[in-house]
Design a protein that fits this description.
mainly alpha; single chain; Endonuclease III, domain 1; DNA-binding; 12 helices; 2 domains; elongated; Endonuclease Iii, domain 2
DNA sequence: ATCCAGAGGA
DNA sequence: TCCTCGGGAT
């Protein structure tokens, strides 16, 4: 699935323009050190962002850097993050912190291959750190961004599409090379606020080339 | 009941 | 290329 350059550019500019006034101001978007981005992305793993905010703040006050996280008592860490569920994720995060201290002297790797060697870190979290912390133009495939691409370009989306290489190349062709972080934030927030999974707000959608919109509008008229 | 800024294991 | 993990919000 190749998107014509002009269509991709139009999509890119429309999305960036929407993001200009609609990006959400999460705490992990303010001071984007590699450690803070990494911790946030792990907490955001299959967990709603609004639910992560208080946990992220309390975790960072307890563990302001990778060394304090690696030295943190595992039981205390489990208690701190209990309400987020996915308890095994806490153990992976702790193992990850110790590995970064032991093998990288406490510096978060800047190579994607190195990041993906860390426990609990795979394609998405590695790409997020590369983009948001280090400024590299990596596309992000998550539940929001894949859904948007599927609707806008009329591609059938399965749960496995997040790991699809073709979908990744499509997302890369849409990505804004100059502002990859803003583009990815805009994609995530647009998927959350407008192009929602349930009840998408097609009325205010600034993107004009979506086939899903036409189908949805049709059902609205019938009603 | 369904879904959530996915990753690990089979 | 399947499936499971998890508490919490809607």
């Amino acid at each position: 699935m190749v998107i014509p350059h002009r269509i991709a550019e139009e999509f890119r500019q429309n999305l960036l323009n929407w993001g200009r006034n609609n990006l959400i101001n999460y705490p992990w978007r303010k001071n984007r050190t590699p450690y803070r981005v990494l911790v946030a992305e792990i907490l955001l793993h299959r967990t709603r962002a609004e639910q992560v905010v208080p946990l992220y703040n309390s975790l960072l006050s307890k563990c302001p850097n990778i060394f304090s996280l690696a030295a943190m008592d595992i039981e205390e860490l489990r208690r701190l993050l209990r309400s987020a569920g996915l308890r095994w994720r806490v153990d992976l995060m702790h193992r990850m912190a110790r590995m970064i201290v032991d093998e990288y002297g406490g510096r978060i790797p800047e190579r994607k291959e190195d990041l993906m060697e860390l426990p609990g870190v795979s394609e998405y979290i590695a790409s997020a750190v590369m983009c948001f912390a280090y400024g590299h133009p990596e596309p992000l495939l998550d539940t929001n961004t894949v859904r948007i691409a599927g609707r806008v370009f009329d591609i059938e989306i399965k749960d496995s599409s997040r790991r699809s290489k073709k979908m990744r190349e499509l997302m890369r062709s849409l990505l804004d090379i100059e502002k990859p972080d803003i583009f990815n934030y805009a994609m995530i927030d647009f998927g959350k606020k407008v192009c929602r999974k349930r009840d998408p707000d097609c009325i205010i959608c600034p993107l004009q080339i979506c086939s899903y919109r036409r189908r949805f509008a049709g059902t609205l008229v019938k009603k």
